[in-house]
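Reopening this one. Same input as before:
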Amino acid sequence: MGPADLVQKISISAESPRGTERNDAGAALAGAERLPPGTWRQKCAAYVLALRPWSFSASLTPVALGSALAYRAEGALNPGLLVGSAVTVLAVHGAGNLVNTYYDFSKGIDHKKSDDRTLVDQILEPQDVVRFGVFLYTVGCICAAGLYAVSTLKLEHLALIYFGGLSSSFLYTGGIGFKYVALGDVVILITFGPLAVMFAHAVQVGYLSVSPLLYAIPLALSTEAILHSNNTRDMESDRQAGIVTLAILIGPAFSYILYTVLLFLPYLIFCVLATRYTISMALPLLTIPMAFSLERQFRSQSFNKIPQRTAKLNLLLGLFYVFGITLAPAGALPKL
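Same output, byte for byte:
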C-alpha cells in the first residue's frame, strides 16, 4: 500500500458517518459491523440488538405478575409453567419488535438518528429480520403447545389469549399497522398489560378469571408510558414520515400531561391498596423518586434515553408489585 492509498483510506475513515454522531446503541452496532463478515459473533450481536432487549421488561413483569396472582389465589406455583410462559411471551415480543423494525424501515420511518438502525446501517438485511421474526413466532407457538400439554387450561382459552397476543404484536406495525393510525397505544396497553397477565395466570390455574385484568392496570399504565415517551421523542420524524401517533394528535403539552398521568396513577392505586388491604402493596412506592426524575426530564424535553429509563422504572415497579402480592397475607387482597 502506497502513501497515496494510505492517505485516501484515512480520509475515507474520517468522512464515514460512523463516528461521534452515533449514540451508544449505534456504536455497538458499528462495532459489530467491523467484525469479519459472516462470523457468529457479528450475527449474534446484531440479532440481539435488533430485538431491543431493553424493552423486555414490558413482557417479563406481566408474566411474573400473573404468576404471583396465581400463587396467591391457589397457594402453589409451577416453576415449569412460569418459565414456559416467560419464554412464550418473550418470543412473541421479540418477533413483534422485529416486525416493527422491518416495517419502519420499509416505510422510510427509521433513519440515521433513530434508536433502531439495524436495517438503516445494513447491520442485517431485511430478509434476515424476516427469517428471525418467523423463527421467534415459531418458537412461541411451540412453547404455547408445550404449555397446553402441561397446563389444565382448555385449548380454546389458551389459543384465544395466545393468538390474540401474537396478532397484536404483528398488527402493531404489520398488516393494518395500528401504530401508524394512532392506535398503537391501545394495542400496547392491552397486550402488555391485561392480556399477558391473564395468559400467565390462566396457564397456572387452568381457568380464566377477571381479577388479573384489574390487577394488571398499574403495570399496563407504566408500560404505556414507555411507548408514549418514545412516540413523543419521535414526534417530528414521525410527522415527516406521514404517520400519526397519539403524541402527534394531542401535541407536546398534552403529551406531557399524559406521560405524567401514566407515571403517577399507578402509585395512587398502590396507595389505595396499601391503606385498605395490606401494607405490602406499598413496596412499589420505593420507585417513586425515579418517577419524579423522569417527569423532570420529560418536562425539560430532554428525551435522550427516556424510553430506556422508563423501561427500567417499569421493571423495578413491576418487581416490587410482584413482591408485594407475594408477601400479602392470605385473603388480604380482594378476589384472591
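So the earlier flakiness isn't reproducible anymore. For the record, The chain has a mean pLDDT of 85.
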